[in-house]
């Protein structure tokens, strides 16, 4: 099967990026150094091509109602120009994908899905919207560029002309129409790195010009292009889930510590509960003890605990596993290895020491709170 390609693929090749297949797309893994790209985002800014993310429009007089039924969140409560993180679940409560939904105008929503799940999300939304006055369409020939880091606002404002103040005033989880480097685009302030930052939604034909303009504007502010590897270590430090690791069809939002996105208080104008796919299953699990809990782990040694690593209490007793790591890597910001893992509830308290079986050897780890890193706004 041929991988899909970003409209910026040629730019990545020209910069010497190492490319990898991700979610059915050829995308840059790194340009130079994972650590330098990671640190640039924490201290200055990084420029990411995230055009592989699915962009799905849900439009029509029944769009809000269709999304209320399709996802676990309360889409009709999203204000125009605002966004919300949510999930689309199966009937049994398992997560099909985690999403960001932007309400562009009253009857038009933009749903951003993970690359590898886009087809599944389009299919589910189309089926669930069938009885509503709403249309679902996957947006083709589009690009999405993220600029993340403490200097992101300064850099983006410098190429936004008359829209600079509007971009500076943009709230977290909000979106506006703007001009960036002379191109009519949408700019959102969300992100997946734990830093302040923006996403520029554009047409594929605008992508190269925007990429060049942002690189040039950021050249004197420490901005560098960053790939998927840095994106992964950044989101891990920020305790953000990755589909296929912390989230999947066997996992409910409650197990992932994200029960807050499940709006069981979603009601119609008369106060009656609004039905949505997965509601019955999620209601039944709401107050029941989970079989596993997502926790943060700090390695007490220097060896990283990678995804799939088994966790035990006594390494001398095989078959006594009490959990498994879902993501793990050395943390450039913190200076020691970190991981996320699902463990049995009785071993989930902060401070609990466990053993990770790394290449047949026991490595000491300690349960810590999530996120590992939290952005501190400048004073």
Automatic annotation (TrEMBL):
GO biological process: glycine decarboxylation via glycine cleavage system; methylation
Regions that span the bilayer: none
Keyword match ATP-binding: no
GO molecular-function terms, A-Z: aminomethyltransferase activity; methyltransferase activity; transaminase activity
Entry superkingdom: Bacteria
Gene Ontology cellular component annotations, sorted alphabetically: cytosol; glycine cleavage complex
Signal peptide stretch: none
Enzyme class: transferase
Catalytic activity, as annotated: N(6)-[(R)-S(8)-aminomethyldihydrolipoyl]-L-lysyl-[protein] + (6S)-5,6,7,8-tetrahydrofolate = N(6)-[(R)-dihydrolipoyl]-L-lysyl-[protein] + (6R)-5,10-methylene-5,6,7,8-tetrahydrofolate + NH4(+)
Key word Transferase present: yes
Matching Pfam families: GCV_T, GCV_T_C
InterPro entries per UniProt: GcvT, GcvT/YgfZ/DmdA, GcvT/YgfZ_C, GcvT_bac, GcvT_C, GCVT_N, TrmE/GcvT-like
Alphabetical keyword list: Aminotransferase, Methyltransferase, Transferase
Domain GCVT N-terminal residue range list: 11-266
Record's subunit section: The glycine cleavage system is composed of four proteins: P, T, L and H.
Role summary: The glycine cleavage system catalyzes the degradation of glycine.
HAMAP family, per the entry: GcvT (MF_00259)
Entry protein name: Aminomethyltransferase
Species this chain originates from: Rarobacter faecitabidus
Gene: gcvT
């Amino acid at each position: 099967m041929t991988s899909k390609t970003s409209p910026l693929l040629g730019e990545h090749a020209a910069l010497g990026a190492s490319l990898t297949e991700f979610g059915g797309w050829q995308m840059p893994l790194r340009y130079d150094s994972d650590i330098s790209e990671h640190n640039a985002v924490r201290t200055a800014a990084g420029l990411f091509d995230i055009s592989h993310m699915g962009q799905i429009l849900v439009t029509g007089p029944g769009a809000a109602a269709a999304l209320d039924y399709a996802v676990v969140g309360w889409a009709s409560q999203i204000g125009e120009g605002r966004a919300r993180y949510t999930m689309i679940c199966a009937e049994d409560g398992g997560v099909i994908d985690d999403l960001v939904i932007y309400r562009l105008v009253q009857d038009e929503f933009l749903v951003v899905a993970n690359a590898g799940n886009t087809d599944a999300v389009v299919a589910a939304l189309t089926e669930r919207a069938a009885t509503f006055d709403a249309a679902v369409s996957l947006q083709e020939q589009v690009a999405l560029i993220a600029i993340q880091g403490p200097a992101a606002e300064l850099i983006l404002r410098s190429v936004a002309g008359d829209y600079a103040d509007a971009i500076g005033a943009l709230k977290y989880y909000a979106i506006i129409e703007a001009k960036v480097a002379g191109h009519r685009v949408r700019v959102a302030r969300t992100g997946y790195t734990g830093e302040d930052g923006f996403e520029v939604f554009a047409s594929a034909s605008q992508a190269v010009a925007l990429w060049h303009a942002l690189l040039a504007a950021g050249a004197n502010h420490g901005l560098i292009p960053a790939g998927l590897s840095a994106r992964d270590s950044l989101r891990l430090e920020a305790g953000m889930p990755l589909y296929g690791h912390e989230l999947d069809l066997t996992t409910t939002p409650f197990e992932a510590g994200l029960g807050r996105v499940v709006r069981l208080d979603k009601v119609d104008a008369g106060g009656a509960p609004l039905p949505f796919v997965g509601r019955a299953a999620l209601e039944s699990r709401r107050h029941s003890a989970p079989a596993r809990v997502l926790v943060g782990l700090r390695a007490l040694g220097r060896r990283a605990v990678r995804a799939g690593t088994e966790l035990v209490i006594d390494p001398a007793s095989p078959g006594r596993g009490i959990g498994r790591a879902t993501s793990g890597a050395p943390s450039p910001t913190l200076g020691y290895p970190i991981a996320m893992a699902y463990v049995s509830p009785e071993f989930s308290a902060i401070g609990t020491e466990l053993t990770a079986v790394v290449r047949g050897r026991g490595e000491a780890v300690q349960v810590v709170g999530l996120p590992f890193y939290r952005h501190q706004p400048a004073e």
